[in-house]
Structure of DUF6747 family protein:
Amino acid sequence: MGTITHFKNLYVEAFDNCKPEILVVLLKAYSVFSAIMILMAVYAFMYRAINGFEF
């Protein structure tokens, strides 16, 4: 659990005192979008691996 807290602290500190505010919003949205895409790729790979890579 300490690792998750550490990553959260790094994420929050990365955007401290960052200007302009619209850039902060865009970067946060992009980071969430990227995390979702990575999770989808991992899910797709695991699904294919479990089902024998059949298309």
User: Anything to note?
Assistant: Helices lie at 2-14, 21-50. The mean pLDDT is 89.
